[in-house]
Design goal:
The complex is a heterodimer of chains A (about 450) and B (about 210). Chain A has 15 helices and 21 strands. With about 450 residues, chain A is an alpha/beta fold. An 8-stranded parallel beta sheet of chain A has the order 11-7-5-19-18-16-14-12. In chain A, a hairpin with a 4-residue loop joins strand 20 and strand 21. The two termini of chain A are about 35 Å apart. Helices cover about 55% and strands about 15% of the residues of chain B. Chain B has a 5-stranded parallel beta sheet, sandwiched between helices. With about 210 residues, chain B is α/β, with parallel strands linked by helices. Chain B folds into 2 domains: about 80 residues, Methionine synthase domain (Methyltransferase, Methionine Synthase (B12-binding Domains), Chain A, domain 1), CATH 1.10.1240.10; about 120 residues, Cobalamin-binding domain (Rossmann fold, 3-Layer(aba) Sandwich), CATH 3.40.50. The termini of chain B are far apart. Chain B is globular, with a radius of gyration of 18 Å. The chains are: A alpha/beta (about 450), B alpha/beta (about 210).
Chain lengths: ~450, ~210
């Protein structure tokens, strides 16, 4: 945690901050302030340039996000008060960021460092299907992902059932599901020879009790691993979320800040999403004590972020944060199409390309809009990470990346609304060996070759 | 001054102007039902724009608030005349237990209200039994339960199971929605309807009630 010394001063503001009726917070405080800063800092979306190269625009987005966070804070729905942070506290927290953290354990430990815009250092790659899966596929999917060469960290699929029972949030089944989740995960990590690999766990826990139940360095989530604290869209929290903040800080693991600003929702359009991403990052740092951000802005109706109205804010906010802070930020892709379709490969490649060049680390890939059980595989994430490594190593510029992004967008953008759902994991992989079937691998290879022809200089 | 101006005031989310205009129109002898009809058309148009994200949620919500302000003025007059208005059904709407995400539920509520449904919003993190008690108290036709997390989806199933156990299953239609849910889940738990999005919810719910 970067700001542990402020933990209790800030948590206390849940009970002492300005009171506000919950129904008023978004329409009367949050969105009007957002509209005001968008206007004040002259932030304008240009659909022709999904990846802008305007440094001044990036800096204005940073200032707007800062002002938005300072003014609206984070609303606690349990106490109906706004947790607000001052300019000095934001400055102090930003100064205290280390910009580099060792995560994971033993030989599998990895140094995770801040990235700059057009940084030649490859992104830190967290593989994650983000979706739920059948109980009997969970271990196999963990194995399949953990076999990925470029994996620096892993967030496993989520269990819906445990011992044949449906997991219900806050109930005993959730604690059991969380235990099963981390045992599967640790077993798979050991089996593939990565026992100390950095894990973000456990996604099966929706309630704080599930998370807290599996904190154990011997068999559970270790202090060298990470846990996420979410925010309710937009800019709302609750005691069940703040309980995690306190527990993770006191347990000593790495806290990640999980946010999904909604394009078309209370944070308006592309400009608002960009500003909100910055504001959320400051909230994660100052209120959650997060060492990194996990951002997944998404389209209100589609639940995806690979079309240009979402790539633009990802690009601009990434540049804003990379230029003005030492924050570690992961960009979480949400594709429209599902596994074993060419479209999901193009979408993932484009998301990874734009994110990497703009200073993000990668978190790939929530396929098929993160909606359908079992519909994600490591192959689409693999291609995204390979694109990330390639474009960083070849020091691709924003201009070049924008040109390439436009070419990739032309391959899928018009199909976004009615994207193919693709196949389920067990149709794309041999679940016993946790390896892709030839048809799936061949499709990945074809798209990779096509990307290479477009100028992506893959290292292997 | 015209009905068009009133519709424009609602469309721009100017509640105070919409209220003032509606009073003037009534004074000039306009039929309140005709006004409601025109405003419903306006909201449907906004709903279509929102479905394409040519407008965003705050604009839709503000328009909804302006419409509500006008309806509050018109409703007593319609009731006085002994006309039922255009009520398409009564809905108890909420987010199931353990789930704190309510943006989707709020959009559905707005779309239903602006399309002639009466909605009792029971909020989020709502116990299954509360849905049923509120439905009884309201004399509801539909119980609408939203879930945004896979681990809270069982709350939707629990509502249906409780209704069965209490011998009340035939009394209410149970409609489900939310990102992780789908037709498959609706079929599995025996829900009467799955709504994929807020825009289609009023039409599908109206069809559901007319069908039975």
């Amino acid at each position: 945690m970067s700001t542990p010394y402020r933990l209790w001063e800030i948590i206390q503001r849940s009970n002492t901050g300005p009171h506000c009726d919950e129904d008023d917070f978004l329409p009367k405080i949050f969105t009007p302030k957002l509209q005001e800063v968008i206007k004040k800092y002259d932030i304008r979306y240009d659909s022709e340039i999904p990846l802008p190269t305007d440094d001044d625009l990036a800096d204005r987005v940073w200032q707007a996000g800062w002002e938005l966070f300072r003014e609206v804070g984070l609303y606690n729905t349990d106490t109906h008060r706004m947790i607000k942070v001052s300019d000095d506290e934001i400055k102090e927290a930003l100064y205290m960021i280390k910009g580099a953290y060792w995560v994971g354990a033993g030989k599998d430990a990895v140094l995770w460092i801040h990235r700059r815009v057009e940084d030649p250092e490859p992104p830190f790659c967290i593989f994650s299907p983000d979706i739920t899966c059948d109980e009997n596929l969970h271990h196999s999917m963990c194995l399949a992902y953990l076999k990925e060469p470029l994996l620096d960290g892993f967030c496993a699929p989520i269990l819906e059932d445990t011992m044949g029972q449906k997991i219900s949030s806050g109930s005993p089944t959730e604690i059991n599901g969380c235990t099963q989740h981390i045992y599967n995960l640790r077993l798979a990590a050991k089996q593939v020879g990565r026992p100390g690999v950095f894990l973000v766990a456990v996604g099966t826990a929706e309630h704080d009790t599930g998370q807290i139940a599996v904190s154990d360095n011997e068999w559970g989530v270790r202090t060298t691993d990470s846990r996420l604290v979410g925010t309710l869209s937009e800019f709302k929290t609750a005691d069940t979320l703040l309980n995690r903040v306190v527990h993770y800080a006191q347990y000593g693991c790495y806290t990640g800040n999980l946010t999904g600003p909604i394009y078309g929702g209370w944070c308006l359009g592309s400009e608002g999403v960009a500003v909100t991403l910055v504001a959320y990052s400051l909230s994660g740092l100052c209120i959650h004590g997060a060492i990194y951000n996990q951002h997944f802005p998404f389209h209100l109706h589609w639940g995806s972020n690979t079309t240009r109205e979402l790539l633009w804010p990802i690009s601009v906010a990434g540049q804003a944060m990379a230029r003005n802070s030492k924050l570690l930020n992961t960009s979480n892709g949400f594709s429209n199409a599902g596994p074993m379709t060419e479209m999901v490969f193009y979408e993932t490649a484009c998301h990874a390309l734009v994110s990497t060049v703009c200073g993000w680390h990668l978190w790939e890939m929530a396929s098929a809009r993160n909606k359908y059980r079992n519909r994600a595989t490591p192959m689409e994430a693999r291609l995204g990470m390979e694109v990330g490594h390639a474009v960083a190593r070849q020091a691709m510029t924003r201009e070049q990346a924008n040109e390439l992004a436009l070419r990739l967008l032309s391959k899928y953008e018009d199909k976004a609304a009615d994207a193919p759902k693709g196949k389920e994991y067990q149709e794309c992989y041999d679940a016993a060996t946790a390896l892709p079937i030839p048809e799936h691998f061949d499709m990945y290879r074809r798209v990779k070759d096509e990307l290479a022809d477009m100028g992506v200089d893959f290292p292997f | 001054m015209s009905l068009k101006e009133l519709c424009q005031a609602v469309e721009s989310g100017n509640a105070s102007k919409a209220e003032a205009l509606s009073r003037k129109l009534l004074h000039e002898g306009f039929d309140p039902l005709q006004m409601i009809s025109a405003l419903t058309e306006t909201m449907n148009k906004l709903g279509e724009l929102f479905a394409r994200l040519e407008i965003f949620l705050p604009q839709l919500m503000l328009a909804g608030e302006a419409l509500t302000a006008v309806v509050d003025i018109l409703r007593p007059l319609i009731m006085e005349r002994g006309e039922k208005g255009a009520s398409k059904g009564k809905v108890v709407l909420g987010v199931v237990k353990g789930d704190l995400h309510e943006i989707g539920k709020n959009i559905v509520k707005l779309m239903l209200e602006t399309n002639g449904f009466e909605v009792k919003d029971v909020g989020y993190d709502v116990d299954s039994l509360t849905f049923i008690k509120e439905a009884e108290a309201m004399g509801a036709d539909i119980i609408g339960a939203s879930s945004l997390m896979t681990t809270t989806m069982p709350g939707q199933k629990e509502i249906i199971e409780l209704l069965k156990e209490k011998g009340m299953r035939d009394r209410y239609k149970v409609v489900i929605g939310g990102a992780p849910t789908g037709q498959e889940w609706a079929d599995l738990i025996g829900a009467d309807l799955y709504c994929e999005d807020a825009t289609s919810a009023p039409r599908l719910m109206a069809e559901l009630l007319n069908k039975h």
